[in-house]
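Notes from the 1:1 (GR / supervisor)

We went over the backlog. Supervisor wanted to see one worked example end to end before approving the batch request, so GR pasted a single chain during the call. The sequence is below; no edits were made to it. Supervisor asked that the structure be written out right there so they could see what the output format looks like.
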Amino acid sequence: RNRGGAYMRNGSIPSTVTTPFAQNIKAVTAAQSQAWADLDDEIQEQWREWATQNPVINRLGQSRTLSGHQAFVKLNARLVYAGFTAITSPPIGAAPAPIMSDSVTLDVATKKAEIAYTPTPAPAGVAVQIYAYLANSPGVSYVKNRLALVYTSDAAAASPANIWPDLEARFGTPQVGQVLHFALRALDSKTGLVSATFSS
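Structure output shown during the call:
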């Protein structure tokens, strides 16, 4: 147990993660951590207060209060990794409403992978983020821990989202018989706040 709540870990030595995706995330996170150090005391205190008033729910379903530093890095890394501009002051307002999906198309022959969503277009300032996983067997049903962020739309983009190039870059060329699992969430491109996740 630590200040974030209960957790479990194996005693094995972790492997070094060297994928381009992981390295990019690490670089973005490190840059935002340095940006936190450059903030003046007043702004840092605003982030501490915001974090106290906006606890997060961890993977165990427990409410967890982040430090001001953690909240700043979390929201800004999310924005920068998605291609948007980092923020200095904590956000004002609520997270965006969820994005829902009503259909998905995966056609290996035509190299087509499209996910339709509503509302369309997405609200002003809101981007659609898609997590995906290609399962080799239709018997695989629990994939929550395998979903990877593969796509972030522009703000206010219209449906459907074509994610074939992103799937191919992350998982290799999709093959006949593979099953596409996905999840969507809305990202406020001005604040870094996200909606609840819609899963397929």
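Supervisor's comment: The first strand starts at residue 56 and ends at 57.
Batch request approved.
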